[in-house]
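quick one
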Amino acid sequence: MKTKLTPQRLLRKSLLSAALLGAAFAPAMYAAAPLESGALADQAAAGIEEQAAGSLRTVSCSSVSCLQNALKNALPGDRILLAPGTYKGTFSSAVNGTKANPITIESRDPANQALLSGTSAGGGYCLKITGDNWVIKNLKFTNAQKGIILDNSNDTLISGVEVYGIGYEGVHFRDGSSRGILENSYIHDTGTVNKGFGEGVYVGSAEGASYNQTVNDTIIRGVRIGPNVTAEHIDIKERTSGTLVENCIFNGTGISGENYADSFIDVKGNNAVIRNNTGWRNGNTVITDAFQLHQIVAGWGVNNDFSGNTVNLDQSSAYVINASQGTEAKAHDNVRNPAGNMYKGNVTTY
Ligand SMILES: [Ca+2]
Ligand SMILES: [Ca+2]
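structure w/ calcium ion:
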């Protein structure tokens, strides 16, 4: 059958060619895809497309050097599989995947996850990605200053990870990283070196930092955060927009009060949606509000929406939402246990 080469097919074909070419020069650890004969013919191209999922490379690693090479030499569509065990070091990649063919790093056995262990909770990152379109899945991260950091990494998905024993922040979407997703994960025991900077998830950067602060449309869903996350569980910074936080569970034990960290979530950006989350204060007297809004930069900290959240605050004085000067939010169907203060500042219920 004669097959028309649509732009999508041409892209797929060129990616496959690149993958096959790359395999020819790659170390033996790469499992090269079988080369189709007559690959230039349209029909063969169509055949490759049908096999595309199986033709992309799988890179199996059980050593630190293999993982470092796999990250550095990755091609779109690569699936980097880690055998069970501990990989000690700091790992990074600047390679881009594509929307159709992201680069995946994951445990070979999701029930026996590989552990990326940094060198010290005082410095370095377990995994730093600066390319677009990655999938980071079913892995554990510990013993570094930060667990996972995305710098200018767009459209990257982090799923099924556990991050713990980290000196500062657990997961950081930074420097223009937009449309990132963190889902179905567990973050605990962060800020072991610096309590005030021990956020579970950090979206964007503080005013005055040298990073691109435009980190938009981040999704954080189904993430369990705490205990012993010493700063805010999620800090949504000024000049970020469209962050969605849903179906998360906050265990407030260990929030420290250092650097004003006295809530589950801080929102300093715009257009955030915080919905259907559950928080537990757990008798931690440091926690003064479930959610706080702050204006760090004029025009930011507004048009944020909170709905369907349930917060268990032990007593009546802590607010569900505390919108400080210059900020603004809408709210509906939030539940507080026991009854007590709900909203402070410019919060419109609907
Ligand atoms: Ca903070
Ligand atoms: Ca605070």
